[in-house]
Amino acid sequence: MSTATTSPEPPAGDGVRAPSGQGGRNPWRTIRRRVRTGELGAWPVIIGLIVIWVAFQLLNDAFLTPQNLSNLTLQIAATGTISVGVVLVLLLGEIDLSVGSVAGVAAALLAVLNVRNQWGDIAAIIVVLIFGALIGTLQGSIFAKLGVPAFVVTLAGNIGWSGLQLYLLSPEGTINFPYTGQIGYITHTNLPGWVGWLLGALVVLVYAGAVLVDSRRRSSAGLPIRSPIRSLLRIVGLAIVIAGTVAVLNAWQGVPVGLLIFVGLVVVVDLVLRRTRYGRNIFAVGGNVEAARRAGINVSLIRISVFVLASACAALGGILTASRGYAASQSTGAADVLLVAIAAAVIGGVSLFGGRGSTYGALLGSLVLGSITSGMFLLQLNSSVRFMITAAVLLAAVILDSLSHRGRRSTGRA
Predict the structure, then answer these.
(1) pTM of the entire structure?
(2) What is the pLDDT of residues 6-21, one digit of tens each?
(3) How far is residue 373's CA from residue 378's CA, in Å, rounded to a whole number?
(4) CB–CB of 308/135 below 8 Å?
(5) CATH architecture of 40-189+256-409
(6) Which residues, including other chains, have CB under 8 Å from residue 83's CB and lie 6 or more apart?
(7) Are 203 and 264 in contact (CB under 8 A)?
């Protein structure tokens, strides 16, 4: 767990009230300090996403149309959901190479239960999620209890679960879901326009209330609080993003339910990471295992639970993939699903060194990669170009992460 020397006065520019003369009103000093210490946050990803959108819009004016953006959100929902689980594993400083095959075997099991054995849709989904959690329990236990590197354990899982997927789907190789079933409706249902606006307004109100409550609690405890202007800007910024998103999606067919599942998962897991002791323990183990152990944290339990959540997220991603295509096949979860899920997390700002990142990185990274894929498709470029561009973006993200880590170490923040 990374430790830093505490100071009686909060650093200027971190969104808290700074004493006079400390540079709290000098934004350029804050920017220079963040660059020097590697605390850039999500801004490089956001700026990169804006550049990608502007470039593709200039090349093809259909890119930012409501129809294309709606399709984009559906395209990233499944892999983004898998990427949320990858974020949790990366926060430990580990890697899970089995999430793609877990998604594939989850989709295959769902098809077998629902189509072949005529299980109810909800019951089949629940069993598949439990199956994914059991996979994570097995792999996490081998890693945490036996000391086998997670890379090796999950690599074996990647191969083994792919084999189980082929076994479940044999002899047909593909099992189709009925178009009128609830499984297909998951990613082919859109909310009515007024429901989208209502949900958006509720999200903004809840966030504003959380900010107000947090400020009052910190103030009553004598802790530094964010400046009112900064808090107001955050609320207004969130309102603008949500309003713009709902307006664009309503201009086509409405807010997709698949997108709500993905974004909802991102928000819930982020709240768990930032607001609960369990979440803080994950960051502690990822920052420094030995320090976390000496602090009384059950490191093995944290590691196992994280792999359980990662595999459960992968299983949910497999369900969304099967729903999107109305089928489970031998290619479900294969190809570049694993690489895209990991790349999305890294591009979104989750550190490969552990202990630093957010589930919102999965959302931003998925948007970046999904935008590249969508833009390439509109420009009628083949997959080879997309792979090369994705590789360049991923490499740039890793280099930026390494430089940030070096900056934090040089200033005693890592």
Answers:
(1) 0.87
(2) 334 433 334 444 443 3
(3) 9
(4) no
(5) Orthogonal Bundle (1.10)
(6) 340, 341, 342, 344, 345, 348, 362, 365, 366
(7) no
